[in-house]
Amino acid sequence: MTVDLVIDCDGHCSEPTFDLDKWIVDEYKNRVPVRVQDPLYGGKRMWEGRVMANSYGFDPGVTGPFSEKAQRGNRPGASDAVQRLPDMDLEGIDAAIVFGGGIGFPVNGLRDGDLAAAACHAVNRWFVEEYLAVDPIRLKGAALISCQNAAAAAKELEWLAGQRKQGIVTAMMSTNVYGINLGDRRFDPIYEAAQATGIPLSVHPQTVHWGQYGYEGVFGAGCERLEKFSYVHCTAFTFELQIAIMHMIGEGVFDRFPNLKVAYMEGSCGWLPYWTERLDEHFEKLRPQWPDCQRKPSEIIKSGQIVVSCEPEEEVIPYVLDTVGQHLVMYASDYPHWDCEFPESVHKLARVHGLTEEQRRRVLGRNAIDWFGLTPDELPRQSVYFKDEATASV
Fold it and tell me: What is the pLDDT of residue 207?
């Protein structure tokens, strides 16, 4: 008998953006982000001589105005894990996979791959030595890897494999690096190391389009043409994941690395049935252009190598599960960002019309437990949300 749990597969924290020098190796202490005053929007961070990110004009950063339905301000639990735990109790979350942001989003756009690798390792040290250490049973980490420095990223994955007891269960990738898509073979050392260590990768989008192709920056689909953050967020988060899945499948990543596991986070799940059909059509009718893809895209998507997170309010979740696969969708809170549903996200998902009881438990926790390979000794013994309910393992 096992206890059902609620696993948040994608929450966020505020890693030490302006205190990174406490964690980074001496060689790079003078090259960490610094705070600068933006004339229009106040304090911003500057890294490698660039303000990240613009907050006005085209390609805006996270800007308002926001309505009363948006999450206002930041929660103390974003930077203080002790204060995060009561928020998890309030929301009904038993364990959370925690992603960064302030470093995690821009780090794969840095020009200097060695600096990026040092910054990633610094954040990962902070994760295991400070934030996750508060409660590594309830708090799990999505580590950072420097994808523009594939050799260093592979080495970091080997180090991360030894941090499982400290809570590291996945490593975060951006949707592209310098505009180069994830199916490019320059990223193969990362996929090889992830497969060898058994660490699932988590592709996470962002709303920034900056830099020069092949040299610097992370590109967000549509961002360069849109002047409002509302439009940018609508497009970049979902479209970039669609591009990432398409390119990794089409360029044969999942065939070259048949035990590689990749999650696609924070872009909703409702598009997956449509995209699966569309990829199959193009694979079949334009087959000569897919020489490295050995299986139909739908076969790869349903194979167990891929999962996606969902938005708690998505009414199409039952359709996605029934159409593409019961194992494919995981609950995510996006705590504490402006668009999260704190403290109601678990309850909103549980009330989605048409979800069977089995599907509810799968999406809220069982799928994530299976995906990240979480064992009973790595998890809470009873649930905040399900209380003392016990069900047979599936």
Answer: 81
What pLDDT sits at residue 55? 45
Span 240-266, average pLDDT: 98
CA–CA distances in Å: residue 161 to residues 32, 194, 227, 368:
26, 9, 41, 19
Q: Which of 302, 37, 350 is nearest to 45 (CA)?
A: 37
Please tell me the pTM assigned to this model. 0.95
For residues 208 and 52, what is the distance between their CA atoms, to the nearest angstrom? Answer: 9
Q: How many CB atoms lie within 10 A of CB 181?
A: 18
Fill in the DSSP letter of residue 25: -
Residue 299: DSSP 8-state: H
Tokens of 125: 């040290």
Mean pLDDT value of segment 75-101: 97
pLDDT classification of 293: cutoffs 50, 70, 90: very high
On the question of pLDDT at 20 being above 90, the answer is: yes
Q: What is the CATH number of domain 2-386?
A: 3.20.20.140
* AA letter at 178: Y
Q: In a 10 Å sphere around its CB, with 0-12 CB exposed, 13-18 middle and 19+ buried, how is residue 255 labelled? A: middle
Question: What are the residue boundaries of the structural domains of the chain, listed by start?
Answer: 2-386
Q: How far apart are the first and last CA of the chain?
A: 10
Whether residue 318 has a cis bond before it, omega within 30° of 0: no
Helix axes 113-126, 150-160, angle to 10 degrees: 20
Alpha helix (H) residue ranges in 229-289: 229-250, 253-256, 272-285
Q: From start to end of the chain, where are the E strands?
A: 2-3, 7-12, 34-38, 42-47, 50-52, 95-99, 139-144, 168-173, 176-177, 180-181, 201-203, 262-264, 306-310, 329-331, 390-391
- DSSP H or E segment with residue 90: helix 81-91
Pairing of strands 2-3, 390-391: antiparallel
Residue 56 has a CB neighbour count (10 Å cut-off) of 13
Identify any residues that bridge with 171 across adjacent strands, giving them in sequence order: 143, 201
Sign, Cα dihedral of 354, 356, 362, 364: positive
